[in-house]
Amino acid sequence: MRLSILDQAPILSGGTPGEALSESAKLAQIGEKLGYSRYWIAEHHDLKGLACPSPEVMLGYIGALTNKIRLGSGAVLLPHYKPYKVAETFNLLATLFPGRIDLGIGRAPGGSAEAAEALSGNFLEKVWKMPEAVKELIHFLYNDFPLESIYSKITAAPLPVIPPKPWLLGTSEKSAVLAAENGTAYVFGQFMSDKNGAEIVKKYQSNFKKNTRTAHPEVIITVSVFCAETEERAEDLALCHFVWRIQQESGQSEPGIPSAAEAKSYILSVEEKARFAGYKNKIVYGNPAQVKTKLLKIASEYNTDEIMIVTITPSYEERIESYKLIANEMFAI
């Protein structure tokens, strides 16, 4: 089974955006050495604690620091942009780093309503036009508009030898159907969804339309994972992330995840305790052997051979250690 990395470029307590982005590059380099298949970085806008609004800029930087790991966006939020510009940007990356570039496509705003307005104006109107934008983007990537199209005489230059591979990201049946109709690969964000993901993925797989670009459905499941030497420590890491999310939602915190001591001292309400119990059922946490068992179970449930892991911890060292422990357990010969 293949494992990959999704990075949200978290800014830790007392840290700076520059440090967060430097650590993102370091994570990609270490991930490559450990045997992870892909490193993708997310797009967020004016969200406290997350440092990357522009995956394409970071991918150019990280591509120069790595040699073989596939690099991608998780995701470019297409309603904010014209498909032609996105295709040009990722074709440029694919020209610089042949055979290594993935183009993850999403429809979320990635920030507040105000940020969405500043980026693209009427965001909801552009979400409605997302199916058309996806088709247009794919045609630009493969330079195969029909002759009657107004875009048939232009190219999203430079045209790479190997085009960026498009992946549609989502958490709903709507995204699964859109991916299937366009014959693209699909990423289900299990860590962001409360829906029956296995059924959604099955919908994608059963409705997939084969084409000259993609002969069969391809699926990645994105999961929030915390791995440590002991189950107790892994649960502490999960609690740290959960408390940080509560603090972010309520505007209580500065950027940065609380330490285990700080998280344990945070008094959860009855409702929050119930939420934490549900959260623990949704994520993967434990010692390396436990995490391996859970990841293999998820792969079986979703009928996929690739899982993408997102991990945010109180320190960058703990994040790297989590990825190392998982790789050593999963890739052991």
Structure report:
The protein has one domain: TIM Barrel (Alpha-Beta Barrel), CATH 3.20.20.30. Helix content is 48%, strand content 15%. Strand 6, helix 7 and strand 7 form a beta-alpha-beta unit. It is α/β, with parallel strands linked by helices. It contains 13 helices and 10 strands.
Short key terms for the protein model shown above:
single chain, 333 residues, alpha/beta, TIM Barrel, eight-stranded parallel barrel, 13 helices, 10 strands, 48% helix, 15% strand, globular
**Mean pLDDT across all amino acids:** 95
Strand content: 15-25%
Task: Give the beta-strand count.
Answer: 10
Number of helices: 13
Largest sheet entry: 8 strands, parallel, barrel
Ends distance: 13 Å
Order of helices and strands: EHEHEEHEHHHEHEHEHHHEHEH
Helix content: 40-55%
What is the general shape? globular
Number of domains: 1
**CATH topology call:** TIM Barrel
Q: Would you identify the CATH architecture?
A: Alpha-Beta Barrel
Low-confidence parts, pLDDT < 50 over ≥5 residues?
Answer: none
Rg over CA atoms, rounded to whole Å, is: 20 Å
Question: What secondary-structure arrangement, pairings included, does this model have?
Answer:
Blueprint (H helix, E strand, L loop, with lengths): L1 E6 L9 H18 L3 E4 L13 H11 L4 E4 L2 E2 L5 H14 L4 E6 L6 H8 L2 H6 L1 H13 L22 E6 L2 H10 L2 E5 L7 H11 L11 E9 L3 H20 L9 H6 L4 H13 L1 E3 L1 H15 L3 E5 L5 H15 L3
Parallel strand pairs: 1-2, 1-10, 2-3, 3-5, 4-5, 5-6, 6-7, 7-8, 8-9, 8-10
Helix pairs in contact: 1-2, 1-13, 2-3, 3-6, 7-8, 9-11, 12-13
